[in-house]
Specification:
Membrane-bound Lytic Murein Transglycosylase D, Chain A; TIM Barrel; 5-stranded antiparallel beta sheet; globular; chitin binding
């Protein structure tokens, strides 16, 4: 795998020719048009097929995978465009294997809302170990609000992906969420009600596990957090579910390298099956985004936690969402507008902006003028490669991806070329398995 940074005057055709790869496949894999006007500084992921197969009349995904001793999931990961259509056709080429040797195995945990498009979901599931469905909200009184999630759970299990329920405090602001969490941690009666309501919902569904996110903990409540997680994990296991938790590193922690020892990371690691270390502030657009914080700061905190928790139980979380900020930036006043990778590249191309890469934060950025001066920061293939390398260096088991509500071609190209993506559930039913030449 090569991550190519576009230079002035380069085109999809000239880049493909310089690497000796197919123009159509380079465009297809990166999710762009072969005639696209590339932005200076944007990245393209270059992969080199080792084994290609020419589809014959009567072939199906099952027959092709079986003939080459690979799984259907691997075939779909190597050819994600197949999820966008109903049939395969004689004469088209499929990638059976790329030249890159896998450097290890990894679990991937993608966050999604239950209203994710069905085609997008089916295209993404081959790359996932877990899908975290966002979100069942709990209230300050211990009620748990239900969610229409039957279809996403059923489809995930069909692809051998484990569905995980996300639990989040119902609040309109961080201050309200602190109050909700405080009530839950300090009142055993509310905990009892919360756990009973949770079990009543779970019994009617087909979840694999439950992940509770508690990002804001008052200093006086931190010792109670461990006790609550012990109750939470014990009850889930009694009912046959896997307990997950999310630890959110906020911008203050990343800037100061201060971690809260009284959270007892080592004990938490023994209590639950899976811990996701989130490296971003999610849901609040007025806060300084961690894409402006040194990547070394995250490395320092992550390695501290890795030293306390079994890395097989850990996942490093990151965001696929970029932010646009109107300048001048005023902390607590300027509101960031979220944007996908694809949206960021479209803006760079439209305004003919030059994209720069900040190696300290592992973020790409550019400035442009539209009524006012703006700066846009986002992650591209280079950031994904850096995060994946950090996980590999620390023997961390997985990656948590916020979110998968759009198909991030470059991210999946990087991860699929380097890692065998683990599945914890068997393939159940794959509707695409009956694809023929039509």
């Amino acid at each position: 795998m090569i991550i190519h940074v576009v230079k002035e005057g380069e085109t999809v055709h000239s880049i493909a020719e310089s690497y000796g790869v197919s123009v159509d496949r380079l465009a297809l894999e990166n999710g762009i048009s072969s005639s696209a006007n590339l932005a200076v500084g944007e990245t393209l992921v270059i992969l080199f097929p080792e084994i290609l197969y020419l589809v014959q009349e009567g072939d199906s995904l099952s027959s092709i995978a079986k003939a080459h001793d690979i799984s259907i999931m691997e075939l779909l990961r190597n050819n994600p465009y197949l999820a966008d259509r109903e049939y395969i056709y004689p004469g088209e080429l499929m990638v059976i294997k790329y030249q890159d040797s896998k450097v290890g195995r990894i679990t991937t945990n993608g966050y999604a809302y239950p209203f994710i498009g069905r085609n997008l979901l089916k295209k993404t599931l081959p790359y996932l170990t877990y899908i975290s469905i966002y979100s069942h909200y709990y209230t300050k009184d211990g009620e748990v609000l239900n969610l229409n999630d039957a279809e996403i759970i059923r489809t995930a299990r069909a692809y051998g992906v484990a569905p995980v329920m996300i639990l989040t405090g119902l609040a309109a602001s961080p201050d309200e969420e602190i109050e909700v969490i405080h009530n839950l941690l300090t009142n055993e009666e509310i905990q009892d009600r919360f756990l009973e309501n949770l079990m009543n919902i779970l019994r009617d569904k087909d979840y694999y596990g439950v992940n509770i996110t508690i990002p804001y903990i008052l200093p006086q409540d931190r010792s109670l957090y461990k006790e609550f997680i012990e109750r939470f994990a014990t009850r889930l296991r009694e009912e046959g579910y896997r307990p997950f938790i999310t630890l959110t590193l906020n911008t203050f922690e990343l800037l100061t390298n201060i971690t809260y020892g009284d959270l007892q990371y080592d004990v938490l690691g023994e209590l639950v099956d899976y811990i996701i270390i989130i490296t971003y502030e999610w849901g609040f657009a007025y806060e300084l985004p961690p894409t402006v914080v040194s990547f070394v700061s995250f490395i320092n905190i992550a390695e501290y936690i890795v030293g306390l928790v079994d890395p097989n139980k850990l996942a490093f979380g990151f965001s696929t969402i970029g932010y646009i900020w109107r300048l001048p930036y005023i902390n607590g006043v300027t509101q960031g507008q979220s944007i996908s990778y694809n949206g960021a590249i479209d803006i760079a191309r439209e305004f003919e902006a030059v994209i720069h890469f900040d190696d300290i934060t592992k973020a790409s950025y550019f400035q442009y003028y539209s009524d006012f001066e703006h700066i846009l920061r986002f992650r591209d293939a280079r950031a994904i490669e850096a995060i994946a390398a950090l996980a590999k260096e620390n023997n961390v088991n997985g990656l948590g991806i916020w979110n998968i509500m759009y198909f991030f071609n470059q991210m999946w190209l990087v991860l699929n070329s380097q890692f065998e993506i683990e599945k914890v559930l068997p393939l159940n039913l794959l509707e695409g398995d009956n694809i023929t030449d039509g």
